[in-house]
Amino acid sequence: MVSILDRMRGRSNPPVVPEAEPEEEIFEEMTLQEHLEELRSRLLYSALFVAAGFVVGLALTLRVLRIMADMTGRPDFVLISPLEGFSTYMKVALYIGIAVAMPALIYHFVRFLAPGLTRRERRYLYRALPFVTLMFIAGVAFAFFIVIPRGLSFLAGFGGDVFRAEFRAQEVVSFYLTLMLWIGLVFETPVVIFLLAKLDIVTAQRLASLRKYMIILVLVAAAIITPTPDPFNMFMVAAPMYALYEFGILLARLA
């Protein structure tokens, strides 16, 4: 109530604004049976998306294998067993199908985890989904077009005076898939750091203080991932890895 003295002075007390209540962190509790039903449903949807991607992969496999062969500098691959060509073709088609279905697979994985997360955590996770997919695709493309061709070129020319390189289809495909997977995962580093910072698990200051240890870790990881002992190829993997870590620190500051 405005006092008489304040009314005479032409002043009034400011209205009292109620403080906003903090957002309630709600967990959706589910029984064991409900969790199993949810898992079955998510696995079924994921399998359907992979099957649809596999059909797409069947149409693209020959083109992908031709690109791989061209990058090795050979007109074709060597087969040493009757079923190797067919099994390699199916394997590549399956992995293409998984790559095509990856956004849906990540989405259903997150939806399965969602009941155990708070509303705030779910919101951040859903917003990060497009960036998770884009960064993984960027890492796969970087491995496919830059790292792997240089690594294969080095391996094909190694010991050229005494060795003759005749790459098997199965070994080349495994070589590609392994490197693309690991480098694709490495490219997720900034997104993971941003999520951890938003959830107050890490801070930019703490990450910055670990730079000297991260440099050593990056060099060791690059030496493991890189298929050749060539320092140039290892640097091509290590430099983007450390740049992604610094980018993650920048995102943590923004968070």
Q: Work out the helicity level.
A: over 70%
What number of domains? Answer: 1
**Secondary-structure-derived class:** mainly alpha
Whole-number radius of gyration?
A: 26 Å
Characterise the protein shown here:
It is built from 9 helices and no strands. With 255 residues, it is mainly α. The chain has one domain. Helix 2 packs antiparallel against helix 3 and helix 6 (189-198) packs parallel to helix 9. The longest helix has 41 residues, at 32-72. It starts with a helix and ends with a helix.
Q: Key features?
A:
255 residues, flat, mainly alpha, 0% strand
Lay out the secondary structure.
Layout: H1 4-8, H2 32-72, H3 84-113, H4 119-157, H5 169-186, H6 189-198, H7 204-209, H8 211-225, H9 231-254
Structure summary:
The chain has 9 helices and no strands. The protein is mostly helical and 255 residues long. The longest helix has 41 residues.
